[in-house]
Amino acid sequence: MARKKSTEPDPNKLVRESAGAYRTDDERFEARSSGVGWMLLDNESRDDFGQPLTRGPFPTLDAVREAIPEARRSTIKPVKPAKAVKPAKRR
């Protein structure tokens, strides 16, 4: 008996965009090859500089694939900037 293919897309599946660059179907995550390994970029979470939150390096693309489900559950938020302190008034 032949297996039925699932009609539900896998949100964690990586699709190749170009050499060294992959993206999930929902475009939330990107995997990019770098000089130190693979980096996982989360386009829905931002770091302290407003850039996509980056996780890694991972040694292989398979390691990136394994990290995506945990990254979806993560609630990492950037540090909020401290409020400016007003200088004390001189008497």
Notable characteristics:
91 residues; alpha+beta; 5-stranded antiparallel β-sheet; 14% helix
Outline of the structure:
The chain has one helix and five strands. A hairpin with a 4-residue loop joins strand 2 and strand 3 (29-34).
Shape: elongated
Number of helical elements: 1
N- to C-terminal distance: 89 Å
List low-confidence stretches: none
Strand content: 35-45%
Q: What class, by secondary structure content?
A: alpha+beta
Order of H and E elements: EEEEEH
Number of strands: 5
Biggest sheet, spatial arrangement of strands: 1-2-3-4-5
Radius of gyration: 19 Å
Helix-residue proportion: 10-25%
Topology:
Elements: E1 14-18, E2 21-24, E3 29-34, E4 37-46, E5 52-58, H1 61-73
Antiparallel strand pairs: 1-2, 2-3, 3-4, 4-5
